Amino acid sequence: METASLPDDLETCHGTIRELAASLRKAHRQIEQLGHRLDLLLRRLYGPRSERFDPGQLLLFADGDESEPGISAPAAEPVGETSDPAPPRSVNGHGRKALPSDLPRERRVHEIPPGQQACPECGHERSPIGEEISEQLDYRPASLFVVEHVRIKVVCRHCQGHVEVASKPPQPIKKALPGPGLIAR
């Protein structure tokens, strides 16, 4: 801005300064609003997705005293009134979901080698007491099937000890569902 275009009158200068200050405040306010919106969008894009806040959860830690403002215990329902009971909530289990039962299954039994059947303590032969079953999803051309790896557990009936489980064959990816045919696909 050139000095020749500035007004010589003091009142006009004060008015110009007020206008410039108001437009500067407006620009700062707009920058703050846009920054806030950008933070919200980034939080939605990169923030946690599965965690949701339920205000009722804060009541779990209430000790009967109203120490936190705005948190109150739920009102007790009068005894005389009956309401429809809430449907039972399904409990989501941990771990992976079971493979579909309609897939064909191929059972492969893994037994302890005969040389390891003897009890290391007393020398008697151990007898089977159960089995551990793990499932693995595999692929043959044009079909999926489930391989059930059955590992036989044995115990010495004589000394009631030394439980052993047969080992599984080596897997392409440890503790994973896909079998070698599915990985190769």
Word description of this protein:
Among the domains are: 9-46; 105-184, no CATH class. The longest helix has 37 residues, at 10-46. The chain has helices spanning 10-46, 180-184, and strands spanning 105-110, 127-140, 143-156, 161-165. 4% of the residues are buried. Strands 1, 2, 3 and 4 form a 4-stranded mixed β-sheet that branches. The model has no long low-confidence stretch (mean pLDDT 79). By secondary structure, it is α+β, with helices and mostly antiparallel strands. It is elongated and about 115 Å long.
List the helices and strands and how they pair.
Blueprint: H1 10-46, E1 105-110, E2 127-140, E3 143-156, E4 161-165, H2 180-184
Parallel strand pairs: 1-3
Antiparallel strand pairs: 2-3, 3-4
Name the helicity range: 10-25%
Helix-strand string:
HEEEEH
Let me know the largest β-sheet: 4 strands, mixed
Shape: elongated
Number of strands: 4
Rg from Cα: 36 Å
Query: How many distinct helices?
Result: 2
Low-confidence residue ranges = none
Please report which band the strand proportion falls in: under 5%, 5-15%, 15-25%, 25-35%, 35-45% or over 45%: 15-25%
- Mean pLDDT across the residues is 79
Task: Determine the structural class based on helices, strands and strand pairing.
Answer: alpha+beta
End-to-end gap: 71 Å
Short description:
Helices cover 23% and strands 21% of the residues. The chain contains two helices and four strands.
